Amino acid sequence: MNPPIAILGAGNGAHAFAGDLALRGYPVRVYNKFAHEIADLQNARGVTCEGVVAGFGALELITTDIAPVVANADFIFVVVPANAHAFMAEACAPHLRDDQVIVLNPGRTGGALEFRNVLRARGIKARVLVAEAQTLLYTCRLSAPARVRISMVKREVTLAALPACDTARVLERVNPLFPQFVAAADVLETGLDNIGAMFHPTTTILSVGRIESGAPFEFYRDLTPSIARFIEVMDAERLAVARAFGVRAQSACEWLARSYDGITGDTLYERIQSNAAYRGIAAPRSIDVRYIWEDVPMGLVPMVALGRIANVPMPACEGLAHVACALSGRDFWRDGRNARQLGIEGLNVTQVKTLIKGET
Amino acid sequence: MNPPIAILGAGNGAHAFAGDLALRGYPVRVYNKFAHEIADLQNARGVTCEGVVAGFGALELITTDIAPVVANADFIFVVVPANAHAFMAEACAPHLRDDQVIVLNPGRTGGALEFRNVLRARGIKARVLVAEAQTLLYTCRLSAPARVRISMVKREVTLAALPACDTARVLERVNPLFPQFVAAADVLETGLDNIGAMFHPTTTILSVGRIESGAPFEFYRDLTPSIARFIEVMDAERLAVARAFGVRAQSACEWLARSYDGITGDTLYERIQSNAAYRGIAAPRSIDVRYIWEDVPMGLVPMVALGRIANVPMPACEGLAHVACALSGRDFWRDGRNARQLGIEGLNVTQVKTLIKGET
Q1: A344-356, pLDDT tens digit by residue?
Q2: Bridge-partner residues for B6, per DSSP?
Q3: Confidence band of B35 (pLDDT split at 50, 70, 90)
Q4: How far is the alpha carbon of A8 from chain B, nearest alpha carbon, in Å?
Q5: Where are the domains of chain B?
Q6: Domain spanning B192-357: CATH 3.90.25.10
Q7: Is B42 helix (H, G, I), strand (E, B) or coil?
Q8: What is the pLDDT of residue B297?
Q9: Are the Cβ atoms of A322 and B326 closer than 8 angstroms?
Q10: Cβ contacts of B316 on chain A, cutoff 8 Å
Q11: Between 3.10.150.10, 2.60.120.260, 3.40.30.10, 3.40.50.720, what CATH number should domain B5-184 receive?
Q12: How far apart are CA B197 and CA B205, in angstroms?
């Protein structure tokens, strides 16, 4: 008998996870906070997939009541913007039981740390397994109500449990569902390879004048040389933090060459220009976008928190995050994944490593 | 007999000062570091003024040798980008004598402090008077070789000596030449009213994508709502520093209403939009501009240095300066007017005030 699965969330990725698993015969229940975001799913009683996964996946339950979704599940896939991870941890905490597997898809930077920190603060005794994926398994987009176009299922996505000594157990449980998940060394590896946090806020902020001019442009293909150079400076800071924690991170330049076909050039600018997959991706039309309100508090802020612990200067990342705060009128340092919210306040590098690795 | 005057510099403003004073019968000598920048003046043997000041002003000497320019002068007007103030201080130091009046036109933020700090470091004993003007007296632009169009002579420009107890003596000496100069309380007042440092780097940096797209746009009139809001956040930080030092500074909004006719609106965005004088001012075509390499190290950096002394948090100003460094590949914190270069390292607010006010 297939194990019951909880999907938390109702966006592009949540539709893909729910539809794909339901199509493969798993009993799937979907929880979402906002009723209006699941009304279409409730009407349809399932998800229609198209693309590389195709067919109608009937869902067992679609609800704004988290209790029957989480209490029943062997697997809990959290598929929401990283800003909602803490809320999801709070919401499911009272319903958790031993041996449930929780996977954040993806964790961005520090997702599992924040999630587990919330459970600890709530005094949750259930011995759940908490893990985070490095990126979203599916390349997908909602194409109509209760319908998702899955253009690709990634061949390989790294995953790490917190602590890392649990990663093998998580993969043993998850791989029958998703053989694509492979082990990362730990959640610092999955979290510090957050390339989106390098590209998204930078390009958005250095293009504020262009975005608000109203003339449409492409996000990647129209990215200019100085923006690319700025990203390289930030990227070097990110790699320095990774080195300080003994983590193997890849540069944005390396990542482009590994993730896409036909990448040429030495500089980041040239590589972005050479990426055919980037053609046609429109720049945002306003600065009230996930590129700011997710990538800064859930990407740059936790990277800087780690950098401070390791005494790695990160003026470009910090500077850009400060500018993002002033532009948005929000305090991402306070509301984002700072050291306290990650549960690593006051620790040194060795203590963070111990916390993340766990008992071996 | 009219007192001899030294003009240091050979840009728009230096041409205006030299031409105007020569036309009024003062013996004027011009020094500039680079020979190619004064070749036209040497050929013409003077400056032709047009606009509100008109005629040919014959110059006594135009040279790359500073000794005969400075040694001879009763007044030394320094009319160069603020980045060159330290160089000019070094260059004229050995030739200074008691009672010479040195005026930086303008000082930007901390010009007189840096200038005097260089003289002190060189052990100069000559008792010169050092002062800075808040802005350039002339609205002017070179219209042809050795020819400057002066579209306006400002009715009033504030000036402060360092220390402030010398301001009255400086004005007594300078006002026969320029009755437009009036007393500011001290060099913190002239330095913290540096509105250009609020407008210029902000608009340039938040428009990097637009500037490098190659499509021309107007610097002020196409400035977008989020950029204006960001300037207001930075401006509030600047005003907080001024308050901490007991200085009356005006907000960018107030400054617009006082400096231009016909300003309407409550927000900075509306006021900028309403300013007819801003029409037609083109945005820079690259980010290698004074808006970055003068306004950041000679504006934002000294403001932040003062803010740190007063424990005023300045995340927007600091953040933008960090972004400027990464974009330019330069360390404006090291090369700009930091506390050490201003000669105020290790001082507290009271000690800075004492230094600036002098003996009363």
Answers
A1: 999 999 999 999 9
A2: B29, B76
A3: very high
A4: 34
A5: 5-184, 192-357
A6: no
A7: helix
A8: 98
A9: no
A10: 322-323, 325-326
A11: 3.40.50.720
A12: 12
